Amino acid sequence: MKQVLKESLPANGDTSVLAGVYGPAEVKVSKEIFNKATLEVTLRPKIGLPGVAEKSRERLIRNTCEAVVLGALHPRTSITVVLQVVSDAGSLLACCLNAACMALVDAGVPMRALFCGVTCALDSDGTLLLDPTAKQEKEARAVLTFALDSVERKLLMSTTKGLYSDAELQQCLAAAQAASQHVFRFYRESLQRRYSKS
Amino acid sequence: MAEAAAVVAESLAGYRARAARAVLEQVVLPGEELLLPGQEDGEGPGSAGERPLRLNAGARSRGRVVCGPGLRRCGDRLLVTKCGRLRHKEPGSGNGGGVYWVDSQQKRYVPVKGDHVIGIVTAKSGDIFKVDVGGSEPASLSYLSFEGATKRNRPNVQVGDLIYGQFVVANKDMEPEMVCIDSCGRANGMGVIGQDGLLFKVTLGLIRRLLAPDCEILQEVGKLYPLEIVFGMNGRIWVKAKTIQQTLILANVLEACEHMTADQRKQIFSRLAES
C-alpha cells in the first residue's frame, strides 16, 4: 500500500527537494501510538548514505510537522514524509520544510495551519541575509533557520548555529516573519492553480 | 527595531476570519477560520457592538450547521483543515443551516460509515474475512453478512476475490467492519464481484464526480460499449466489457477523465465511437 501521494518540487534558488507523503497507512505495533498518528520523516541526501546531520534535520522537520498535523484524527496509523535532496545550494532545511508542508497539504492530511521555513544568515558586519547561498552560509557568523506557521506567523521551530546577540535574534525573527508572507502567497497561488483545472 | 515591528504588524494585518458565505466555491487553505452566517454582523468594521435593525426578522434563523469533511469546529467558528474548494448545500426541509464541506483532491481513502467500497479479500481467519479497502487497516467481514448465508450454508469467497460492500462500523478508534447486506437482509447489488473485468484506482474526487446525479461522463461511456461497472468510494473502479480490448479502453478513458476538459473528452469519445 505504498503509493506516493504527492511529489512537490519547490526551489529556493537552486536548492530543490522532492517530497512524498504516504498515509494514513498501517503502522507496526511497536511504533503505534494509541491516540494519534505516528509521524515519520526520512531525508535522503543527494549523494552518500544518510548520516547524523540528516537524522537531526529529520527530527526538526518531524517536530514541526507534529505541531501542525491533526494526528488525533488518525490514531494508530502512520504518516510518512520522504524527502529527497535533488540539489543543494544553501538553505536546505528551509526548503525541506516548505516541501514537506506542500506535500502534506496535497496528500490531504488534516492540518491546523500551514508552515514554512526561512533561513537567515548574519555576516561579520551584522548584515542580515535571507535565504543565503552555501557560500554565504559558510562565511556567515551565524545561520538561523525558523519554521513559522501561517495563522499568526508564530514560531514553530528554530535552529541556530553561530554567535549572535539577543537583539539580532529578534531582528532575524522579524525579517523571517515578513519573508514568510511571500512563501505563503506562493503556496496559495500554486494551490489555486491546481484547483482551477478541475 | 521599530521598522521590524512595523513590518510585522503589516504582515499580520492581512489575517482575518472571513465569512463562510463569502468564500464559497473558492480555494481555502488549512488554518483559515470561517464565520458562520449568524456571526457576521457583529464582526463588521466600526459598528462597536450595535446590531443593525432587521426588517424581516425571520430571514436567517441560525439553525444547526453541519460541519462536513475538511472542516472542524473551533470555538464558534469553522477551522479549515484541508485544502480545497469550499462548498455548501442548503438544507432540504425547514430548519438547519445546511452543510459546509471542503472538496479536496485526495487519493488515500479513510473509511466512513455507510460508504460502499470495493475490497480485496486478503485473509480468511476462522469466521471472518480480512478485506483490504485501501485504508490504514484491513476491514473485517463476517461470513454471515452475505445474503442467504447461514452457519451451514457458507458463502463461496476465496482469498483474492473482489467484494462490494458497505461499512457498518468505521471510526478512527475501531477496526472497520463491512457487510454485504443492507438493513433488510438483502444483497442489493453487494457481494462477491464476478469473474474477469479489471480493477483500477482513481482519485476520490473523480469517483464523487462520477457518482453525482446526471453525470455526463457516465452517460457518454454507457453509449460507447455495453459494460458492467462498479464504483467504490475508496477510489476503486471495476469495469467489464465484452472483450479485453474494450475493457482496457474504458479503463484508460476513465482514468484520463480526471485531467481532461469537457471538450477534450467529447473529442475522444467521438473518435472511439467511430472506430
Please name the CATH topology of chain A.
Ribosomal Protein S5, domain 2
CATH class of the largest domain in chain B: Mainly Beta
CATH superfamily of chain A: GHMP Kinase, N-terminal domain
Per DSSP E runs of 2 or more residues, the count of β-strands of chain A stands at 8
Order of helices and strands of chain A: EEEHEHEEHEEH
Globally, the shape of chain A reads globular
Q: Can you tell me the CATH topology of the largest domain in chain B?
A: OB fold (Dihydrolipoamide Acetyltransferase, E2P)
Domains of chain B, number: 3
Number of helices of chain A: 4
Radius of gyration of chain B, taken over Cα atoms and rounded to an integer in Å: 24 Å
Quote the average pLDDT of chain B.
Answer: 84
Question: Helix content range of the residues of chain B, please?
Answer: 10-25%
How far from one another are the termini of chain B? 73 Å
Describe this structure in words.
The complex is a heterodimer of chains A (198) and B (275). Chain A is α+β, with helices and mostly antiparallel strands. Chain A has one domain (3-196): Ribosomal Protein S5, domain 2 (2-Layer Sandwich), CATH 3.30.230. Chain A is 35% helix and 29% strand. Chain A contains four helices and eight strands; from the N terminus they run E-E-E-H-E-H-E-E-H-E-E-H. Chain A has a four-stranded mixed sheet with strand order 1-2-4-3. In chain A, strands 6-5-7-8 form a four-stranded antiparallel sheet, sandwiched between helices. In chain A, helix 1 packs across helix 2. Mean pLDDT of chain A is 90; it is low at 1-11. In chain B, helix 3 (216-224) runs parallel beside helix 5. Chain B has 275 residues and is α+β, with helices and mostly antiparallel strands. In chain B, the strands form four sheets. Chain B has a five-stranded mixed beta barrel with strand order 9-10-11-13-12. In chain B, strands 1-3-6-5 form a four-stranded mixed sheet, with no helix packed on it. The model of chain B is unreliable at 1-14 and 41-50 (pLDDT under 50). The chains are: A alpha+beta (198), B alpha+beta (275). Chain B: Residues 26-105 form the Exosome complex component RRP40 N-terminal domain.
